[in-house]
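Hi V.,

You were right to ask for the full record rather than a summary. Here it is.
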Amino acid sequence: MADIPTPRGMRDLMPNEALFRRELLEKIERVFRRYGFLTIDTPVLEATKILTAKDVIGDESKLIFETKSEGFALKYDQTVSLARYVATYQSLPMPFKRYCIDKAWRRDEPQKGRYREFTQADVDIIGGRAPVADAEVIATAAKALEEIGFEYVVRLNNRVFIDSLLASIGVKEELFNQIMRIIDKMDKIGRDGVIEQLQALGLDRDTVDKIDRLINSEGSEEEKLELVEKTMSDKAALQEVRETLELLKLYALKGDIIVDFSLMRGLDYYTGIVFEIMAGDKQYKSSMAGGGRYDKLTSMLGGRQVPAVGISLGIDRILEVMNFSSSQKQTFATVFIANIKDSNYQYALKVAAALRAAGIGVDLNAASRNISNQLAYANALKFKWVIVCGDAEEKLNNVKVRNLIDGVEKSATLDEAIKTINGQ
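Predicted structure:
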């Protein structure tokens, strides 16, 4: 069957991988709920005219998976679907805090950590006050990463800063988005690559040097902000970033928070503050989460203009960093019940019912195989406990409980077996 192809850029997960992923998503979802975010559900398809509308995702439109007919496409991310949802249902209570954990699809070039089918875990606040909502979504994502034991660094910027610099040095406005896309590739092409591509746009060396000095500025976070303050006539964006930094201190986040003027975020719908969360392990330089403010997106899709901000956790990248493929756990069940003879299966089923009623996950022998093969199966799936049911156990209305880790086995009543398995 090896000649049956898997769709390019998509993958199957083995039981240990899928289990690790599911448990990770459950931990993240618990944090999202703890922070008061609501859940909604939207279709996997969106109207192509929405996804390709001017300034929604800009040049990224070429990555959309379109259907052959009917004018629909697989959703590109969770944000556009949310904006369309808010534009459709305009009676939603505001601010509207929503989380979504779902798949999205992009006709991207597959590479390590980047797939054509991928999972995003998003939190967004529609209609919230800028610094308050910005800090809340950043902190929620950071706390979710802490919940799964992830070390991280938060990078923060505002795209208005580069707009202000470019305007002050006479760069044509039609080049702004192209310049930001080039700067956004800093992690991939490096500082020299950014300089080279900026010059290829026709910018002179003096202009490129001024951009370079800003996006690679060093010092404390306040020193960096004082640097951009010199070029800004409107200080509102600067004040929002300062307030966001102050509010984030109150969340007692474990990761560092830095101002980084090279951070742009590639999508055209971002209008102000942008942020990314990087792995604390310097071996992994790509973003694990990212987002920003997109105040105009709902109005682009026909709704009223409302302030909006959100962040998306890239689940597939997080899983790669956590080396999930090497996880050992294969099954959600804790106990495997083996029956010595086929005639003992009904008693084994009775035992399983008692354990399940006590909240213990149980698997049973579903094939005609001897006790040796059943124990080999239990070992292969790395069960901790095996319960053996034979004629003797059925007669005495008890079981044999074996710990597969230390090999200790004992006879026990059902109540005793439940206590042993629960560590009582």
